[in-house]
Amino acid sequence: MSSTPVAYAVSHWADDRWARGSWSLIGRDGSPADRVTLGAPVGTRLRLAGEATHPSRAGMTHGAYEQGVEAATWAAGLGHRRIAVVGAGMAGLAAARTLTGIGHQVTVLEARDRTGGRTTGVRAGGAAFDLGANWLQQFDDNELARIAEDLGLRLVPTGFNDPLIAGGRPVPDGIGKELRERLAAVPVGAAMSEVVEAWLRAPGQWSASDIQRYVDAEIVMDSGAPLSWLSARYGFEPGVGEGDRWIVGGYRLLVDHLAAGLDIRLGQPVRAITVGDGGVTVDGLAERVDAVIVTVPLGALDDIAFTPELPPAHRTARSRLGMGRVEKVILRFAERFWPEHPSGYLRVHGPGPGDVCEWLDATAADGVPTLVGLFAGPWLDELWAGGDERIAGRAAAVMAAAWPGPVAPAATGR
Ligand SMILES: Cc1cc2nc3c(=O)[nH]c(=O)nc-3n(C[C@H](O)[C@H](O)[C@H](O)COP(=O)(O)OP(=O)(O)OC[C@H]3O[C@@H](n4cnc5c(N)ncnc54)[C@H](O)[C@@H]3O)c2cc1C
User: Fold this and answer.
1) Is the pLDDT of residue 407 over 80?
2) d(CA 196, ligand 1 centre) in Å
């Protein structure tokens, strides 16, 4: 049975100049209030939106979407008619769609040659898979999920709380509860690593290896940031949960729907924005506009020259937030060599602390054995070197080593 992929795709979000990481996180001196400050209007003509500005749904597509709608409502409420939107990800599309829908004149400027931002699909061996966002999270309270349902998209639930763990037993439930209590008890300014290291030194009723594995799966995997930088108090934000669903065919189906009919200029990186009393000048746009909504990721925000510069409160808020690194690999195989698990989710821990990867069994897309892997932590740094073929081969080897034995024939094409 061969574990050599027949098709693959590999993400490089950290090296992507229009993303510079995977999603925003709160550093040790920060709090959700920084997200609110960053998204507060700058006067009456400029507002930052995007996932990083959502106080409770940051790092997720529906959080970005909500912030886009919020910024559009703000601009419309001020009576602005001509509005520029920078970025055609979820937030930008939501803003533009909301404003266009009520008759405003909107131009979207997008640096890349495609829409969708950190949602992006690739074709691997025929079917389309997501190299960015995969799931509709917090499914019952997710506006994008309602749109996906209205569009009749095929949505597959994932049981994140019941992954099949290679070579290990499930971590006792009480560890998560105790970790949350420990994190809530420390002041702002404490780093996640301080809490984790203190606990590992005195693990109490738990085993240190179970604590480490819990931290790796829940915090390293969800952040992709060094724990010495991440806020202990606020770095473990809401996100992945039971009932999240992935979109068969990918987020592109949703993005194309949201982008339909909008004036989107692709390949137009915005480098400078000047806000004056009479309007806003955005480079790339010949005419001045009444207002601008900027939805670029945190890392890309630093590359835009604002005149006047962003207020001190916004800059301080920006400095307390950062981007993590979680990368994905899509692997297609001729045969399944890993076990089929009802939750559709698998986890492998690596040799060192912080080494972790998780896998969505995406065979449901078209019946071809397919794994979508997410890597974070030091293992990611070690494996993501060389060309994509080598990275894909190493990632496949991780799975082959985790499940070396023969597996029962799988019922594919669910
Ligand atoms: C690997 C990975 C997995 C993820 N998994 C999930 C998931 O399962 N579920 C989920 O809900 N979320 C997930 N996310 C997070 C989700 O993708 C983001 O939170 C969301 O897409 C952000 O939307 P946004 O509009 O705020 O930003 P973006 O999607 O980044 O859009 C911003 C846009 O601005 C453009 N831009 C940047 N700079 C400029 C400039 N100077 N001029 C013009 N345009 C510019 C960018 O090209 C981009 O198109 C994942 C992200 C990654 C990377």
Assistant:
1) no
2) 30
350 CA from centroid of ligand 1 (Å): 28
At 161, the amino acid letter reads N
Res 320 pLDDT > 80? yes
Q: Which pLDDT score, from 0 to 100, does residue 351 have?
A: 87
- Identify which of 118, 155, 262, 321 to mutate to test ligand 1's pocket (most ligand atoms within 8 A of the CB): 118
- Rounded to the nearest whole angstrom, what is the distance from the C-alpha of residue 225 to the centroid of ligand 1? 17
For the CA atoms of 376, 120, 395, 336, the dihedral, rounded to the nearest 10 degrees, stands at: 130
Buried b (16+ CB within 10 A) or exposed e, 156-189: bebebeebbbbeeeebeeebeebbeeebeebeee
Contact 86, 109 (CB under 8 A): yes
Q: Is the dihedral of CA 90, 91, 93, 97 positive or negative?
A: positive
Domains and CATH numbers, the chain: 27-118+252-321 (3.50.50.60)
Q: Residues with Cβ < 8 Å from 186, sequence gap 6 or more?
A: 194, 195, 232, 233
